[in-house]
Amino acid sequence: MLVGEAKDCKEAIEKVHSFHPDLIFMDIKLPGGDGLQLTKRIKAQYEKIVIIIVTNYDLPEYRQAIYKCGASYFVSKSSSTRDKIVSMVESIVSDKRYEKNGQK
Question: Which end of the chain is more exposed for a tag (fewer CB within 10 A), N or C?
Fold first, then answer.
């Protein structure tokens, strides 16, 4: 498993093109851009990438915007626990393995 990070939107899109990740954690506010717009851009080119939006903005209008942009999951920084996030990632990785083995 490869884990990486990007300092801004430009670097994030470059890394997506280079590494084709299965899973991305994305914040709404990013240096050099907007995480929601970046999510739309990534999903337009790589629809199978799972994007989890992680944010402090836990409001209904943000949740709607997050899913409208193509994100798969929403994680509130203020109310999510480490265990919930780990469980979510394990489930996603398990589903991805299942898909890659031609079972879905």
Answer: N
Task: Output the six-digit token pair for 58.
Answer: 């836990």
What is the dihedral sign for C-alpha 67, 21, 76, 38? negative
CATH of 9-100, one of 3.40.50.2300, 3.40.430.10, 3.40.50.150, 3.40.50.620: 3.40.50.2300
Q: Note the pLDDT tens digit of each residue in 1-29.
A: 678 899 999 999 999 999 999 899 999 88
Where are the domains positioned within the chain? 9-100
